Amino acid sequence: MTTRLVLAALATLIALPAAAQSPTGTFVSQSGDTRVRFADCGGQICGTIVAVRGQTTDEKNENSSLRNRALVGIRMITMRPAGANAWQGSLYNFQDGKTYSGRMTMPSADSMSLSGCVLGGLVCRSQTWTRVN
């Protein structure tokens, strides 16, 4: 009987789905120049710049009236769930002032892969970001 209980417990554990990774928290960009805090925002995940090295204003923004605003505090990423450990939405790149369609995945609890795409997803650029808290 004990063997049956152990086998039943093991079968239950094997059948459980893998735990979803949470993107909430602060991540640093691949270059190390930008820190973004990710939080839930109405069923989506939003990323807001909390620190940046180098460029400090939104000087490349396509909207000239926004070019003098500080980068810290700008929501640069908005994503909605798109499967297990995956989200899709938009990414604002302050280095060129453009917003791209994008995808975010969490290969592990401490790393995030972000891809921004143009031409309907034909051309994409990816980065790996690392959790800092």
Give a written overview of the molecule.
There is one protein chain. With 133 residues, the protein is mostly beta strands. 11% of the residues lie in helices and 47% in strands. It is built from one helix and eight strands; from the N terminus they run H-E-E-E-E-E-E-E-E. It has an eight-stranded antiparallel β-barrel with strand order 1-2-3-4-5-6-7-8. The chain is globular and about 40 Å long.
Major sheet details: 8 strands, antiparallel, barrel
Low-confidence stretches: 1-17
**Strands side by side in the biggest sheet:** 1-2-3-4-5-6-7-8
Order of helices and strands: HEEEEEEEE
Helix content: 10-25%
Number of helices: 1
The rounded Rg comes to: 19 Å
Write a concise synopsis of the structure shown.
The protein is mostly beta strands. The protein has one helix at about 1-15, and strands spanning about 25-30, 35-40, 45-50, 75-80, 85-95, 100-110, 110-120, 125-130.
List keywords for this structure.
133 residues, mainly beta, eight-stranded antiparallel β-barrel, 1 helix, 8 strands, 11% helix, disordered N terminus
SSE topology:
Blueprint: H1 2-15, E1 25-28, E2 34-40, E3 45-52, E4 75-81, E5 86-93, E6 98-108, E7 111-118, E8 123-131
Antiparallel strand pairs: 1-2, 1-8, 2-3, 3-4, 4-5, 5-6, 6-7, 7-8
